[in-house]
Amino acid sequence: MMEMLMDYGHMNEKAGPRAYDALILHCANTDLWVNVMNATPFKGCETIKSADHRHIYDLCDYVVYLTEWKQQVTDKNEFFPDSTYDDICCTSLGAVVLAQYYLPKHPGHDLIQSRLGSDPCESTFMLKRNANPNADKIGTDHTLASIHGGPLVQLWASRKGNVEKKRVFFGKELMLGKFE
Q: Using the 8-state DSSP alphabet, how is residue 161 labeled?
Protein backbone atom coordinates (compact mmCIF):
# COMPACT_ATOMS: atom_id res chain seq x y z
CA MET A 1 0.00 0.00 0.00
CA MET A 2 2.79 2.39 0.90
CA GLU A 3 4.54 1.82 -2.43
CA MET A 4 1.28 2.40 -4.29
CA LEU A 5 0.71 5.70 -2.47
CA MET A 6 4.26 6.81 -3.12
CA ASP A 7 4.13 5.83 -6.79
CA TYR A 8 0.63 7.02 -7.68
CA GLY A 9 -0.52 9.39 -4.92
CA HIS A 10 0.72 12.48 -6.74
CA MET A 11 -1.56 11.62 -9.68
CA ASN A 12 -4.69 12.24 -7.63
CA GLU A 13 -5.70 15.73 -8.77
CA LYS A 14 -8.30 16.09 -6.00
CA ALA A 15 -5.71 15.64 -3.25
CA GLY A 16 -2.85 17.95 -2.43
CA PRO A 17 0.77 16.97 -3.08
CA ARG A 18 1.27 15.89 0.54
CA ALA A 19 -2.21 14.43 1.11
CA TYR A 20 -0.96 10.90 1.74
CA ASP A 21 2.03 11.71 3.96
CA ALA A 22 0.28 10.67 7.19
CA LEU A 23 -0.90 7.40 5.65
CA ILE A 24 2.58 6.65 4.28
CA LEU A 25 4.08 7.33 7.73
CA HIS A 26 1.51 5.03 9.33
CA CYS A 27 2.24 2.26 6.81
CA ALA A 28 6.00 2.60 7.36
CA ASN A 29 5.68 2.50 11.17
CA THR A 30 3.25 -0.41 11.14
CA ASP A 31 5.34 -2.37 8.62
CA LEU A 32 8.38 -1.96 10.85
CA TRP A 33 6.39 -3.09 13.90
CA VAL A 34 5.13 -6.20 12.09
CA ASN A 35 8.62 -7.01 10.81
CA VAL A 36 10.15 -6.59 14.29
CA MET A 37 7.47 -8.76 15.91
CA ASN A 38 7.99 -11.43 13.24
CA ALA A 39 11.80 -11.04 13.30
CA THR A 40 11.71 -10.95 9.49
CA PRO A 41 15.35 -11.36 8.41
CA PHE A 42 14.95 -10.27 4.77
CA LYS A 43 13.46 -6.98 6.03
CA GLY A 44 16.45 -6.29 8.29
CA CYS A 45 14.91 -7.58 11.51
CA GLU A 46 16.12 -10.30 13.85
CA THR A 47 15.41 -11.85 17.22
CA ILE A 48 16.08 -9.60 20.20
CA LYS A 49 19.51 -10.49 21.54
CA SER A 50 20.00 -8.06 24.44
CA ALA A 51 18.16 -5.72 26.78
CA ASP A 52 19.25 -2.70 24.73
CA HIS A 53 18.78 -4.22 21.27
CA ARG A 54 17.67 -1.79 18.54
CA HIS A 55 14.29 -3.54 18.22
CA ILE A 56 13.51 -2.61 21.84
CA TYR A 57 13.60 1.03 20.75
CA ASP A 58 11.59 0.27 17.59
CA LEU A 59 8.81 -1.24 19.71
CA CYS A 60 8.83 1.68 22.15
CA ASP A 61 8.80 4.17 19.24
CA TYR A 62 5.71 2.47 17.80
CA VAL A 63 3.88 2.77 21.12
CA VAL A 64 4.84 6.47 21.30
CA TYR A 65 3.65 6.97 17.70
CA LEU A 66 0.27 5.37 18.40
CA THR A 67 -0.15 7.22 21.69
CA GLU A 68 0.58 10.59 20.07
CA TRP A 69 -1.87 9.79 17.27
CA LYS A 70 -4.54 8.78 19.79
CA GLN A 71 -4.07 12.01 21.75
CA GLN A 72 -4.41 14.15 18.59
CA VAL A 73 -7.65 12.55 17.45
CA THR A 74 -10.79 14.52 18.26
CA ASP A 75 -13.27 11.97 16.90
CA LYS A 76 -12.87 8.46 18.39
CA ASN A 77 -13.89 6.95 15.04
CA GLU A 78 -10.64 8.22 13.50
CA PHE A 79 -8.56 5.83 15.60
CA PHE A 80 -8.41 2.11 16.40
CA PRO A 81 -10.83 0.63 18.93
CA ASP A 82 -9.41 0.96 22.44
CA SER A 83 -9.01 -2.81 22.65
CA THR A 84 -6.81 -2.86 19.53
CA TYR A 85 -4.68 0.00 20.86
CA ASP A 86 -4.31 -1.79 24.21
CA ASP A 87 -3.38 -5.07 22.50
CA ILE A 88 -0.68 -3.41 20.39
CA CYS A 89 0.76 -1.54 23.37
CA CYS A 90 0.73 -4.62 25.60
CA THR A 91 2.29 -6.76 22.88
CA SER A 92 5.05 -4.21 22.25
CA LEU A 93 5.78 -3.29 25.85
CA GLY A 94 5.46 -6.92 26.95
CA ALA A 95 8.29 -7.85 24.61
CA VAL A 96 10.36 -4.92 25.87
CA VAL A 97 9.87 -5.79 29.55
CA LEU A 98 10.46 -9.48 28.93
CA ALA A 99 13.71 -8.77 27.05
CA GLN A 100 14.95 -6.32 29.66
CA TYR A 101 14.16 -8.66 32.53
CA TYR A 102 15.15 -12.02 31.05
CA LEU A 103 18.06 -11.42 28.70
CA PRO A 104 20.51 -9.81 31.18
CA LYS A 105 20.09 -12.85 33.43
CA HIS A 106 20.60 -15.30 30.55
CA PRO A 107 23.44 -14.16 28.27
CA GLY A 108 23.56 -15.89 24.92
CA HIS A 109 19.79 -16.36 24.75
CA ASP A 110 17.53 -14.62 22.23
CA LEU A 111 13.96 -13.48 22.60
CA ILE A 112 11.95 -14.97 19.75
CA GLN A 113 9.36 -12.23 19.50
CA SER A 114 7.41 -14.03 16.78
CA ARG A 115 6.28 -16.49 19.47
CA LEU A 116 5.04 -13.88 21.91
CA GLY A 117 1.38 -14.29 21.39
CA SER A 118 0.33 -14.47 17.77
CA ASP A 119 -1.70 -17.62 18.42
CA PRO A 120 -3.65 -16.13 21.35
CA CYS A 121 -4.21 -12.93 19.33
CA GLU A 122 -5.42 -14.87 16.31
CA SER A 123 -7.68 -16.98 18.53
CA THR A 124 -9.10 -13.84 20.13
CA PHE A 125 -9.85 -12.24 16.76
CA MET A 126 -11.44 -15.47 15.53
CA LEU A 127 -13.68 -15.60 18.63
CA LYS A 128 -14.56 -11.92 18.17
CA ARG A 129 -15.41 -12.42 14.49
CA ASN A 130 -17.59 -15.41 15.28
CA ALA A 131 -19.37 -13.64 18.15
CA ASN A 132 -20.21 -10.46 16.23
CA PRO A 133 -18.83 -10.26 12.68
CA ASN A 134 -20.33 -6.83 11.87
CA ALA A 135 -19.50 -5.01 15.07
CA ASP A 136 -18.63 -1.33 15.24
CA LYS A 137 -15.94 -0.04 17.61
CA ILE A 138 -18.13 -0.22 20.70
CA GLY A 139 -19.40 -3.68 19.81
CA THR A 140 -15.82 -4.86 19.29
CA ASP A 141 -14.77 -3.60 22.72
CA HIS A 142 -17.78 -5.25 24.38
CA THR A 143 -17.20 -8.56 22.60
CA LEU A 144 -13.51 -8.64 23.53
CA ALA A 145 -14.33 -7.74 27.14
CA SER A 146 -16.73 -10.67 27.37
CA ILE A 147 -14.20 -13.04 25.74
CA HIS A 148 -11.49 -12.14 28.25
CA GLY A 149 -13.81 -11.70 31.22
CA GLY A 150 -14.19 -15.42 31.95
CA PRO A 151 -10.50 -16.24 32.50
CA LEU A 152 -10.06 -13.06 34.57
CA VAL A 153 -12.98 -13.99 36.81
CA GLN A 154 -11.48 -17.45 37.28
CA LEU A 155 -8.07 -15.96 38.03
CA TRP A 156 -9.32 -13.60 40.73
CA ALA A 157 -12.26 -15.59 42.09
CA SER A 158 -12.40 -16.01 45.83
CA ARG A 159 -13.41 -19.12 47.77
CA LYS A 160 -16.63 -17.37 48.83
CA GLY A 161 -17.60 -16.34 45.31
CA ASN A 162 -20.01 -18.12 43.03
CA VAL A 163 -17.28 -18.99 40.51
CA GLU A 164 -14.74 -21.77 40.88
CA LYS A 165 -11.21 -20.43 41.16
CA LYS A 166 -8.92 -21.92 38.55
CA ARG A 167 -5.68 -23.22 40.06
CA VAL A 168 -3.69 -24.10 36.93
CA PHE A 169 -3.20 -21.97 33.83
CA PHE A 170 -1.52 -23.17 30.67
CA GLY A 171 1.10 -21.04 28.92
CA LYS A 172 -1.06 -20.24 25.91
CA GLU A 173 -3.78 -18.93 28.23
CA LEU A 174 -1.30 -16.45 29.69
CA MET A 175 0.31 -15.62 26.31
CA LEU A 176 3.82 -16.55 27.39
CA GLY A 177 6.65 -16.35 24.90
CA LYS A 178 9.34 -18.86 24.11
CA PHE A 179 13.08 -18.46 24.17
CA GLU A 180 15.85 -19.89 22.05
A: S
